[in-house]
Write a structure and sequence with these properties.
Elements: E1 2-6, H1 15-24, E2 29-35, H2 43-46, H3 50-64, E3 67-74, H4 89-108, E4 113-116, H5 127-147, E5 151-154, H6 165-174, E6 179-182, H7 184-189, H8 194-198, E7 204-209, H9 228-233, E8 241-244, H10 259-274
Parallel strand pairs: 1-2, 1-8, 2-3, 3-4, 4-5, 5-6, 6-7, 7-8
Helix pairs in contact: 3-4, 4-5, 5-6
Amino acid sequence: MKLSCADFTFPLLPHDDALSLIQMLGIEGLDLGVFAGRSHLQPGDIVGNPAQAAGDFTARLDDCGLLLSDVFLQTGKHPGDKAANCPDPAVRAGAREVFLKVLEFASEAGAVHMTGLPGVSFDGVTDSDGLKLAAEEARWRVDEAGKAGIIYSVEPHVGSIAPTPQAAADLVRMAGGLTLTLDYGHFIYAGFSNDDVHALLPFASHFHARGGAPKKLQVPMAENTIAFPEILRRFDGYQGWICLEYVWVDWEGCNRTDNISETILLRDLLLGASA
């Protein structure tokens, strides 16, 4: 089992300190967040000179002895901003340009996996058409990433164009080669059961783990209802990373956990269940 941790788990620390903390927790991999307006390293820090940004970043990563497990790109300041499936062709073209620059950065940094967001619903666009456009854009990104030897996935999330297990499965099937960064918490929050989400495991190339419960997107492990031991037993043939992905952001109560303690508790639960 390969465990990673997101740098955006500790957004209040300077980036080097966040990386050092992850290494101190005995975690091997680093999930890098590249989020417009709210991550240590943002798209604007990369697009001007992706190769230089990658060199600077990998030098700091190497100093901490961490491996780059994922580059998670969020082009806009919220999921609907510069969304991949925006009905405006000019917005989609701009998002593609940013994607290509961050893809170049990811390749230069030695990444083998990238995550993005699938898109959202838009007024005046049926969810069916929105999903088709999301699939079209995802397929293009899969192909571009593949040229660089990188796997591209999307994370179905609360408020996305794929908010249900069925919609997420439909998106994967419509976008040939697409995989998922799977976070049970988004579906458990919405009232789906663990059994409902298990069907998505074969599509997962990356996995986000944190405590979750119905109507609560992120909770302490003492309140968690996600069946992590059972999920690990169902990970037959899974070769990807499992990212400990507690976040700290003022959204859906995701700033109410002690992320250091909860990351340790989740780490130990997963290690114990896999022993």
